[in-house]
Amino acid sequence: MANQKKKLSISALLEILLVSTKLGLTSFGGPIAHLGYFHDEYVRRRKWVDEKSYADLVALCQFLPGPASSQVGIGIGVMRAGVIGGIVSFIGFTLPSIIALIIFALLLNNFGIGDTGWIQGLKIVAVVIVAHAILGMAKNLTPDLQRKTIALGAIVLTLLWQTAITQVAIILIAGFIGYLIYRKQTIDEKPNGVQFPISRRLGYLCLGLFFGLLIFLPLLREATTLNWVAMFDSFYRSGSLVFGGGHVVLPLLEREFVPTGWLSEEQFLAGYGAAQAVPGPLFTFAAYIGAVIGGWKGGLLATVAIFLPAFLLILGTLPFWDSLRQSSKVKGALMGINAAVVGILIAALYHPIWTSSILSTVDFAFAAILFSMLVFWKLPPWIIVLTGAIGGFVLTLF
């Protein structure tokens, strides 16, 4: 009986790995598209989870900071084969893009980045991708005057107060304002009673570790001169504070690594453009940054650091989700935070993305073409990236 159970467990893990790797190789288009791929594969085709359970899991991951699509994948792996299943699901979904971006970073390090035309094209692609993300997020997350005002405040503070703690302070203030404004809203949802194979004790342990590292790592960074500690702290903090989707990690990572001299704006934006061309979660952009700074080992360290908060949060909150989702106060705070995220992203669109990418009327015209291809013609992101790189190179010939 024990051997049979072990075989079933190994078989389930192998199945999770194969299915998640297939998704990691084919899931283009960002987190919303990823959730569509997941639904088709896990709910409709394989019936690993039912519609209500999947909707419940997606709601939780939208509630938490971090990469929502990756957290949904982890949650499905947990539901299928426990914590190990969640880890295997994560590896399969993220490894293809991690490998691709580390290779891209190593090639740039070896051959030099310079001011080549195709790099300028990738920087213009970054403008287009972030602008598109902002349009969708603003429509969904700032529908009323109060939340539009919160977003405006976030824009102003982010642009005028450019320090390492700006985003943290803005998120905390916006959460408090959202709590004050929306804490009395009615909650229509009823708990689905979805059961996850995680004990509350493990949940408390993971949440304690999440907050403990958030507090302890900056102190350790100040007490040591080790570069890997500083890198781990920067990536962990960025992964802990991202509300609203993977694009929001851009300003957090830019503030951590560009002003401090870890990498140049050209390297940063070229990698961000390349990240749009690969499938899987945008958070794997961290693998590129880590590889530029410290080779393939730096890429792996950055990946672990930026995704660790997502792991700890999803494992820590799964046992408590039914009660959390019924709290109007929690939802009110989240509404304020999401509005502030829109403002932070708009500020990032202006600086550093726009100011370092749109340098002439030709650049603006090319950005308008790429934007139309993405938004109006609905072409996939990898085509936009390829067109941007080729177009940027061609423009240097004239």
UniProtKB/TrEMBL annotation:
Gene Ontology molecular function? chromate transmembrane transporter activity
Q: Does the keyword Membrane apply?
A: yes
**Keyword Transmembrane on this protein?**
yes
Q: Where would you say this protein principally sits, based on its record?
A: membrane
Q: What superkingdom heads the lineage? A: Bacteria
Tell me the InterPro entries matching this sequence: Chr_Tranpt_l_chain, Chromate_transpt
Q: Membrane topology for this entry?
A: Multi-pass membrane protein
Regions that span the bilayer: 83-106, 118-138, 150-182, 202-223, 273-293, 300-321, 333-350, 382-397
Which GO cellular component terms are attached?
plasma membrane
UniProt-annotated location(s) = Cell membrane
Pfam family of the protein (one):
Chromate_transp
Family stated for the protein in its record: Belongs to the chromate ion transporter (CHR) (TC 2.A.51) family.
PANTHER family given for it?
CHROMATE ION TRANSPORTER (EUROFUNG)
The name on file for this protein is ChrA protein
